[in-house]
User: Fold this.
Amino acid sequence: MIITVLHGYIRQRPVVERKMGEEICEVCGYRSQLGAVGKHPIIPSEIMEQAGVSKSQISRICANCRIELERWYAVEVNRMVYDEMDQRFRDRTPVEMVKEYQSAFNGFKGYKKKTIKVL
Ligand SMILES: [Zn+2]
Assistant:
């Protein structure tokens, strides 16, 4: 048991030991020694190139979460935004798209945490 003091609260959490070669999905906690959990950039490389950002945030996620994340992005990532100044919709800039993907990824992680039962 590891005990940490964070903001004045004492938190206890079990020690999570990883077996040799085991990877843990950072979204759902799934463990695999057989390659089902891998590194995945949270922002598509073409968006990163367009935004001129070279370092993408990499997540370790399982195959199921990867599929769900792609579907989540298809619904949650909006390529258009309403421009108050011009009073019409316009394409998001590449930098805005990077933020949009980051926000969608955080929303996905939050959604998954709510739906996973903690024993
Ligand atoms: Zn997962």
In short: Residues 22-96+107-115 form one domain. The longest helix spans residues 94-115. Strands lie at 2-6, 9-13, 23-24, 31-32, 37-41, 58-62, 80-83, 88-91. The pocket of zinc ion is lined by residues 25, 27-28, 30, 61-62, 64-65 (CB under 6 Å).
